[in-house]
Amino acid sequence: MAIHVGVIGLGRMGQIHARNIAENVPDATLYAACSYVDEELELAKREFGVKETYKNYEDMIANTNLDAVVIVSPSGLHTEHIRIAMQKGLHVFCEKPIGLDSEDIKKTIEVINSRPNQVFQLGFMRRYDESYQYAKKLVDEGTIGELTLIRCYGIDPSSGLESFVNFAKNSRSGGLFADMSIHDIDLVRWFTGKEIKRVWAIGKNAAYPILDKLGELETGAAMMQLEDKTMAILVAGRNAAHGYHVETELIGTKGMLRVAQQPEKNLVTIFNNEGVVRPTSQNFPERFHDAFIREMKEFISCIKEGRQPEVTAYDGLLGTIVADACQKSVETNSIVVID
Ligand SMILES: NC(=O)c1ccc[n+]([C@@H]2O[C@H](COP(=O)([O-])OP(=O)(O)OC[C@H]3O[C@@H](n4cnc5c(N)ncnc54)[C@H](O)[C@@H]3O)[C@@H](O)[C@H]2O)c1
Predict the structure, then answer these.
(1) pLDDT per residue over 73-115, tens digit each?
(2) What residue owns the CA closest to ligand 1's atom 19?
(3) Domain residue ranges of the chain, discontinuous segments joined by +
(4) Global pTM?
(5) Whose CA is nearest to atom 34 of ligand 1?
(6) For residue 1, what pLDDT is reported?
(7) For the chain: N or C, fewer Cβ within 10 A?
(8) pLDDT tens digits for 220-272?
(9) Superfamily per CATH, domain 3-123
(10) 270 CA distance to ligand 1 centroid (A)?
């Protein structure tokens, strides 16, 4: 029988998950949706065939026809929404970050751990991207030897700035490191299997003064040392003129790997009066289109097969702790040690 899913949040990301559940995950039915915004609820009925729509989350999950919820509400609401759904006996998929406050996340993990028969999955979708999975396999097989340094770029396109400003005005993003670098922090932990112990982060706003008013950074950089002295350098930003720039370099004792050396759109190269041009991915829905579908298929498979996914709530906690340390480092201009 199909798993009945309710989605909370139908904004930029919620609509992607809603569409995937409705159209691309065969064993799932998008049964209900919840949002503050009337037009989004209309769209969910019209485009995704949702049967029931709600403005109040607790009303939605009181619906006994639901098996699972997909939480795509603003980041500051995730922990509360997870706890309520877990306590109702539902399986939960939650977008990243799991939360913005580590003590609150720990309380939420207690609730998750007290219900081992319910699936909990966190939206670290890069772990479901085929290129990252291939790179991970090569690293695990020892192809590039022992890792010494990981360099990550995660920069949103300048074209997305307006929509980000609206997002940041209406809800807490958690800052550049919790909102953007959290994916790279997770990759560093995933590739190495080690914890990050010390960080030094800095940032600068240059092109968009409005970000100062919102307490947000346009570009930030963090240098990290892991427990075994492996190093990581993370660059995050909101102002890539050429598109959505996600790139990862892994340097090992026997070689080096790059994922998306240029963040290419596809295999096409254009030769014209502008020179030799490689088009780039323009945004996260385009670059991680397949990974979003694969992570949702994994969530539904876990429910059907009675198992938990590889990515855990604990990974979410560690991501937030490291992102917080980066933010604190920027604010205090000092190296922050993570216990
Ligand atoms: N995995 C990724 O790469 C990725 C990309 C973008 C966003 N995200 C995450 O997805 C989440 C949502 O981001 P977004 O950009 O879609 O935000 P958004 O502002 O575009 O949408 C938020 C949605 O939540 C709804 N909402 C807000 N408060 C609510 C409440 N109390 N009850 C019911 N509905 C409520 C709004 O009506 C809206 O539909 C964030 O946590 C963000 O970090 C992840």
Answers:
(1) 999 999 999 999 999 999 999 999 999 999 999 999 999 999 9
(2) 167
(3) 3-123, 127-290+319-337
(4) 0.96
(5) 35
(6) 84
(7) C
(8) 999 999 999 999 999 999 999 999 999 999 999 999 999 998 888 998 999 99
(9) NAD(P)-binding Rossmann-like Domain (3.40.50.720)
(10) 36
The residue behind tokens 């396109």 is: 157
Looking at the predicted structure, is the pLDDT value of residue 167 above 90?
no
Q: In whole angstroms, what is the distance from residue 295 CA to residue 143 CA?
A: 26
Compute, in angstroms, the gap from residue 273 CA to the centroid of ligand 1. 41
Residues with CB under 6 A from ligand 1: 8-14, 34-37, 40, 57, 72-75, 77, 95-96, 123, 125, 167, 170, 179, 284
Which of 303, 331, 284, 323 lies closest to 98, judged by CA?
Answer: 323
The atom number, within ligand 1, closest to the CA of 123 reads: 1
What integer is the mean pLDDT of 309-315?
Answer: 97
- The structure tokens 């409005």 sit at 210
Residue 303, CA distances (Å) to 61, 95, 191, 274 in order = 17, 17, 26, 51
How much distance in Å is there from the Cα of 231 to the middle of ligand 1? Answer: 32
**Interacting residues of 273 by C-beta distance below 8 A, sequence separation 6+:** none
- Options 2.40.50.1020, 3.40.710.10, 3.30.360.10, 3.30.210.10; CATH for 127-290+319-337 is 3.30.360.10
Each residue's pLDDT tens digit, 33-64: 999 999 999 999 999 999 999 999 999 999 88
Judge if the upstream peptide bond of residue 97 is cis by omega within 30 degrees of 0.
yes
Among 7, 13, 20, say which to mutate for ligand 1: greatest number of ligand atoms within 8 Å of CB.
Answer: 13
Q: Which residues contact 251 (CB under 8 A, 6 or more apart)?
A: 144, 147, 148, 149, 150, 151
The single residue listed with the structure tokens 């240029």 is: 262
**pLDDT at position 309 over 90:** yes
